[in-house]
Amino acid sequence: MKEQIEQISKNAKEEIANVKDVKELNDLKVKYLGKKGELTAVLRGMGALTPEERPIIGSLVNVVRDELEKLIEEREEQYKAEELTKKLEEEKIDITLPGTKIKTGSKHPVNRIIEEIEDLFVSMGYDVVDGPELETDEYCFERLNLPKGHPARDMQDSFYVSPEYLLRTQTSAVQARVMMANEEKTPIRVICPGKTYRRDDDATHSHQFGQVEGLVIDKNISLADLKGTLEIFVKKMLGENSKLRFRPSYFPFTEPSYEVDVSCFKCGGKGCNLCKQTGWIEVLGSGMVHPNVLKMNGYDPEKYTGFAFGTGLDRLAMFKYGITDIRYLYTNDVRFLKQFDRKD
Ligand code: DAH
Q1: Which pLDDT does position 201 carry in this prediction?
Q2: In whole angstroms, what is the distance from residue 70 CA to residue 83 CA?
Q3: Is 209 in the pocket of ligand 1 (CB under 6 A)?
Q4: What is the C-alpha separation between 192 and 309, in angstroms, rounded?
Q5: Is residue 156 scored above 80 in pLDDT?
Q6: Does residue 251's CB lie within 6 angstroms of at least one atom of ligand 1?
Q7: 344 pLDDT more than 70
Q8: Rounded CA gap, 234 and 117, in Å?
Q9: Cis peptide before 51, with omega less than 30 degrees from 0?
Q10: Whose CA is nearest to atom 8 of ligand 1?
């Protein structure tokens, strides 16, 4: 029996040494060490041995089995390592090759302006609010003291989609919405940046443009509050050295009304082509909220006063970044937009 075991061991070792792949190795494992394997068969035949022989043969079988197991395991490890090396070789990447540059977008100059304005006004306690771009005639005009047939409606060539609905011509529409929603609660301190639309068709105007509206209502709000607020606004946006000039004007929703000019930031007020030799550039419409507007939108004009202002975002962006043609803002030429690629 001893010879039989030694023969098995010899054969197995030879076969393991000559094995060609993992499958063959697995087959050998079954052949020699499996339940029906050759070594196991030997153990089964041990009943025929004398009690003295049994431990000797038993331990021999164990030694051989351990040996074979170890050999098989070594080959298995070897195969695994070979496979890994092969995989690494096949999937090798050259980390010294230059990478593909990921193109990132940049903030549009008008969005930059909006963010700056929002940050400024939020720091002064204002809320940023929103309103619909498809607006009703009621909110865009009627509730702002512009009844049907009012001549000032002609100033704003509108896109009506039905007798009742139009694309809003001014963010002022949000004034009425905010007042109605607040139901005479005060204070109201809001700004509303957004898109507006008019049927302008000359080269310097776009049918769609951006505006920002401001509205403050409380007890004892005065013209001094309006002036102080706009001064901070304009200086922050266009430079601390800017001077402001309030020119009496007319808007149906404010009384008194002002157009606000800023000293030309190109020539400092001396006169140049940007300010058409006047030294001043018009930047804002503003005024004290008209008592009719307060009343129509649920605020008692005997108790409350307020101010409002509105300005064009495109113009502000053009002034601030020295953009000479409004069309650059809308044609989405990446060469133009890339210039605003600063991380700030
Ligand atoms: N809505 C006006 C426009 O589109 C601008 C404006 C003027 C807004 C005076 C105001 C204001 O809030 O008080 O031209």
Answers
A1: 65
A2: 20
A3: no
A4: 11
A5: no
A6: yes
A7: no
A8: 10
A9: no
A10: 310
Please tell me the distance between residue 258's alpha carbon and the centre of ligand 1 in angstroms. Answer: 10
Residue 328 neighbours by CB under 8 Å, 6+ apart: 336
Structure tokens at 253: 């929703």
The span from the first CA to the last CA of the chain, in angstroms, equals 87
167: β partners: 134, 159
Please provide residue 5's backbone torsions phi and psi, each rounded to the nearest 5 degrees: -65, -45
Which residue blocks in the chain are alpha helix, DSSP H? 2-18, 22-33, 38-44, 53-90, 109-123, 137-140, 173-182, 223-238, 291-296, 313-321, 334-337
Q: Which H helix or E strand runs over 315? A: helix 313-321
The answer to whether the beta carbons of residues 106 and 337 sit under 8 Å apart is: yes
**H/E/C letters for each residue in 149-204?**
CCHHHHHCCCEECCCCEEECCCCCHHHHHHHHHHCCCCCEEEEEEEEEECCCCCCC
The minimum-distance atom of ligand 1 relative to the CA of 214 is 12
Task: Dig out the tokens for 128 from the structure.
Answer: 């940023």
Using a 6 Å cutoff on CB, does residue 286 contact ligand 1?
Answer: yes
Enter the pTM of the model.
Answer: 0.72
Atom 7, ligand 1: which residue's CA is nearest?
285
Rounded to whole angstroms, the Cα distance separating 320 from 333 reads 19
Q: Please say whether the beta carbons of 5 and 60 come within 8 A.
A: yes
Listing from the earlier edge strand, what are the strands of the sheet with 159-160?
Answer: 134-136, 165-167, 159-160
Tokens 């903030």 belong to 107
- Distance, in Å, from the CA atom of 102 to the CA atom of 127, rounded to the nearest integer, reads 36
* 161-187 pLDDT, tens digit each: 999 999 999 999 999 999 999 999 999
How far is it, in rounded angstroms, from Cα 261 to Cα 234?
Answer: 10
Per DSSP, what are the bridge partners of residue 217? Answer: 188, 306
Asked if the model's pLDDT at residue 282 lies above 70, the reply is yes
Going from the C-alpha of 65 to that of each of 22, 47, 152, 219, 285, the distances in angstroms are: 19, 19, 104, 99, 98
Q: Which amino acid is at 27?
A: D
The CATH code for residues 109-343 is 3.30.930.10
